[in-house]
Amino acid sequence: MDLKMIVGFTIIFHAVVYVWRKTWILRMDTKRLNKCINGISTKRIRKYFRLWFRLGTYVTIFIGFPFTLWLFLRTIFYALVPSVATVALAVTPSAFLSSTEHEALELHHEELSPFPDAEIPIEASSSSSSSASYLAIQPILPGWNLPLSHLPYYLLAILISVIIHELGHAVASASHRIPIVSMGVSFFGPLIPAAHVELNSAQLRETPFKKQLDILTAGVWMNMYLSLITYFVVPLLLPALLFPTHSLGRGISVTGVMPRSGAGGPGGLERGDIILGVDSCPVKDLDSWYTCLESIWDSEPVGYCLNSDTVAKFLNNSENPGCCDRDNSPTHLCFMEMTVGEHVETLQNHKEDLVTELQQTPTSNGSLPSPEISDMSLNKSNNSTSPSSICLPAKPIVTLNETLSPKCYAPNYSCPPIKINPGSAGDISILPETSENNHNPLIGTESQSSNCYLARLLKQYKGFRIIQIHRRQHYLKESVLFVGDVWDLRNGVHASDYVPRDWWLAQFLGFNKLSLVPVHLETVLLLTAGLSAGLAVVNMLPIYGLDGYHVVDACVNHMGKSWESKKISRLVNYISWAAVFVALLTVICSIVQSF
Predict the structure, then answer these.
(1) DSSP annotation of 63
(2) SS3 of residue 142 by DSSP
(3) Which residue, among 427, 452, 447, 426, has the nearest Cα to 437 in the 3D structure?
(4) Cα separation of 429 and 227, whole Å?
(5) Each residue of 496-546: pLDDT tens digit?
(6) Which class for 224: exposed (0-12), middle (13-18), buried (19 or more C-beta within 10 A)?
(7) Could you tell me if 413 and 454 are in contact, meaning their C-beta atoms sit under 8 angstroms apart?
(8) What is the mean pLDDT of the chain?
(9) Could you please report the per-residue DSSP string of 275-323?
(10) 210 to each of 55, 61, 216, 432, 563, how far by Cα in Å?
């Protein structure tokens, strides 16, 4: 569904409604709930409702209205004076923390690139994200600033908000023994549902002033309360609500993979996968997931120790796709043999630091090494050759047992000798790198030397790593081997702390569908909180038809009892037109600022 389809459906909707009801707005009323709601006036609970809505009157009048005026003027001010907004954003604690975090991590992007040498936009320097980081009025329209995939959540959230709003008016009216006439819903198009409560206006005007305010501000008060509950309280109760179907602390559930991310695709992560660990780092929740990825990012690339027999076995048992000529093989990687010349070249990049360290470290006889010896140790030998490159299958090498294929680490990338007991097959042990073991002739005859092999991509591109992701669903699935930027994996995989339980519901619906239940609930709660708060703010505007207009009208009539009716209506209209001007200017400024 795209924006053109929504516009076309809206036109068809209004045309059908006009043919059916001879009006452009679909309105449906009912009186079936009158007896239930009006019955509150005869029950003891009504005094608690009266105290509750009286509290709402004070909060709305003394906090809600000033906050609404400040929020609208703030949005206009920051839109008309962008330089002030930029300075204000630059000195906020959130902006400072985000900037320092990006500097420490060096790379944090929200748009993933399939090419390692492509320019990647940095989130901290994005002007669009910075402009929307302060509190302001922003209209929410599906297809514009809300994804069309969130349209069902949007309709459900706005329907809940308007029903709670009008239910507040109805209950407040009944608690003050003013019966309601009818209740209903209206549709200003298929995407804008609304609710309404019809009261006896003559009886309402004869009610004392404070009771009028209790009834008129009840809708705004209930929207404010709903927004606070759905944003702060209900998310804390989600673990208890989802306890029968989901659990926490058993990994993370993959809810989606971005199309441009290298973590997806054939053999990659799928929706419904439960990530149990990354390499040797266990994953229990999202915090541990991010911690594991950050530790991999901070560490140097890891190589793999392979002897000549193992390399020959891989070369004989697999076809060579020529991945060293171009890195486009889905199964093989080009590995470089980290020879002595390669070690010395790595040390040459840090020559000055190593010379200083060597000069400050005593030798075995207690004397400091001479600068000539330190300098000679950093020069490449004339007999050294350039490192050889071999195209090998990536997954078997990475998933080999640590005993059969130990890892080699920076900066030396050296491999310990592997002792082979000729008396029993498979009896292999790794010897420590000591001078006694290196010069022992007996060990030399029984040990087989191995070389360190490092994937060429890891050396060419900063931030590239080989990461083994352990996963499961109903059963333990084959691990995913990810080769690429660590932040591609961090930002390209959407996950949740809620892991589906292994029982009949998971088998019936599948892990891929059950894993989305917490995401649906969290999205509905977040949209309900935002739309309910927005509905409260809008209804506090003194514009004709909104609650704010009726509140201002009641206040003016109460304060100007001796005034003429024309003077009262003229003053109320002036206030209303001023509110319309401020609201239109705010909407225009927020729309212009979003582009």
Answers:
(1) I
(2) strand
(3) 447
(4) 63
(5) 999 999 877 777 888 888 889 999 999 999 999 999 999 999 999 999 989
(6) buried
(7) yes
(8) 77
(9) EEEETTEE--SHHHHHHHHHHHHHSPP-EEEEEHHHHHHHHHHS----T
(10) 11, 12, 10, 86, 20
Does pLDDT of 236 surpass 70? yes
Closest alpha carbon to 136 in 62, 216, 80, 218: 80
Q: Which of 22, 60, 353 is nearest to 225 (CA)?
A: 60
In the chain the first and final C-alpha atoms are separated, in Å, by 23
β 332-337/407-408 pair status? unpaired
At residue 16, the 3 state secondary structure works out as helix
The full DSSP string for 82-141 is HHHHHHHHHTSHHHHHHHHHHHHHS---SS--SSTTS----GGG-HHHHHTSS-------
Q: Show the tokens assigned to 51.
A: 């105290």
Q: Which residues of 326-344 are buried (b: 16+ CB within 10 A; e: fewer)?
A: ebebeebbbbbbbbeebbe
In this structure, what token pair is assigned to residue 272?
């419904």
| Cα distance between residue 178 and residue 108, in whole Å | 59
CA distance 245 to 499: 8
CA distance 490 to 289: 9
Which strand (E) or helix (H) includes residue 347?
helix 340-348
| Residues in the chain, total | 595
Q: Which of 248, 211, 273, 265 is nearest to 57 (CA)?
A: 211
572-593 core/surface letters (b: 16 or more CB in 10 A; e: else) = beebbeebeebbebbeebbeeb
- Nearest CA to 154 out of 520, 524, 522 is that of 524
The percent of the chain in helix, strand and coil, each rounded to the nearest 5, is 50, 15, 30
List Cα–Cα distances, 124 to 93, 477, 577, in angstroms.
14, 37, 41
Q: pLDDT by residue (tens digit) across 283-302?
A: 999 999 999 999 999 999 99
What are 43's two structure tokens?
């029950």
Question: Is the predicted pLDDT of residue 343 greater than 80, yes or no?
Answer: no
**Contact indicator for 10, 189 with CB cutoff of 8 Å:** yes
Between CA 316 and CA 310 the distance in angstroms is 10
Burial (CB < 10 A; 0-12, 13-18, 19+), residue 46, is middle
User: Which residue, among 95, 110, 146, has the nearest Cα to 530 in the 3D structure?
Assistant: 146
Antiparallel, parallel or unpaired: β 281-282 and 303-307: unpaired
